[in-house]
Structure formats: C-alpha cells, structure tokens
C-alpha cells in the first residue's frame, strides 16, 4: 500500500514537471521597445502571439486603463489630445516648440480633447524640467467634462533655465479609480 502511494506521487510529480518544462519551452520572453525606449517588464511570446502587460502598455501609449474587478474586465481609453504652448507677451501670443536656455516669460497651454470615452473628474497640466522636477501649471476639478472639449491654462511664469528637454504633461483623473493618467505629452527643447 505504501509503495503504491509512492508510485502515484512519483507519476504525479513527473507529469507536473514535464508540463512545466513544456510550458516554459512553449513560451518565450520578449523585449519590448516603445518609441525606442525599452519597457521594463517586456512581454511573452506563446503560440506565435505576443502578450504584453496592459498597464505598462497603457502607460507607454499615454492611455487610461480601468479595471472592473467584479466583472474581470479591463478597458483601455486613448483620448485624442493636441497641445500647443504659447509665449505670452506684448506683441501677442506666439506658439513655440523650442526655446533658448534662460527663456523668461509667461506661457499658456492650449489643449483640444476629443474621443474621451470614460468619465473623468479633473485634469492637470504640469511641466517637467530636464532633471525631472515638476511644476504644476493648473488643475481643473470639474464633473462635467464631455467627450469633446477645449482647455486653456491660466498664464504661468516659467523660465527654461536648463538646456535639455522639458515635458509638458496633460493628465486626467478618472472617476472610477481617482488616479492621474498622463494622456498627452509635449516636448519643448531648450538649447
């Protein structure tokens, strides 16, 4: 009787080990690059299909991912957000995409949003300098954002005092999870 139990366990462990080895051989890790930037988790190739972590993909695409645990459903939303940055001065507002180091002045960010397919309760516009320091330009709490709207920040004084790339981020806070999601970025180069 004891020998029979040992034999059954040996068969079970052998089958389980063989299954694990076959599964390992059937899947292969994949390195993933988004716009030339290597993604941390990467992906898995199984049966000729590549599988990627959804939250990582959404972050890399500047999209919103929402999870409904009760239904085991994930939703990915990518609104169209177009931003323009304006230098405000006496001669008039002028859009720009590059500046000289030390550029002093007041700026505004204009954003056009359409194809918003999820409920949001706030938007935020911030600028990050080349060292990663963030300055908040404006937060707008509002429950009435619809699927298509325009947004213009208030005038903000900003000095591009370092050479390098500055990133202006347009973020949305969803009503479902109350988290901020970057949905658009605009790069300003300071030389």
3D architecture notes:
It contains 2 helices and 17 strands. It is of the alpha+beta class and 191 residues long. The mean pLDDT is 83. The strands form 5 sheets. Strands 8, 9, 11, 14 and 15 form a 5-stranded antiparallel β-sheet that branches. A 5-stranded mixed β-sheet has the order 10-17-16-12-13, with no helix packed on it. The protein has a 3-stranded antiparallel β-sheet with strand order 1-4-5. It folds into 2 domains: 2-75, no CATH class; 77-190, Sandwich (Immunoglobulin-like), CATH 2.60.40.3020. Keywords: Signal. Residues 1-25 form the signal peptide. This is Copper amine oxidase.
Radius of gyration: 25 Å
Distance between the termini: 82 Å
The CATH topology annotation of the largest domain reads as Immunoglobulin-like
CATH architecture designation of the largest domain: Sandwich
Would you tell me the overall average pLDDT? 83
- Can you tell me the residue ranges where pLDDT is under 50 for at least 5 consecutive residues? none
Give the helix level as a range of percent. Answer: 10-25%
State the helix count.
2
Number of domains: 2
Instruction: Let me know the largest β-sheet.
Output: 5 strands, antiparallel
Number of strands: 17
The top level CATH class name of the largest domain: Mainly Beta
In quaternary terms, these chains amount to single chain
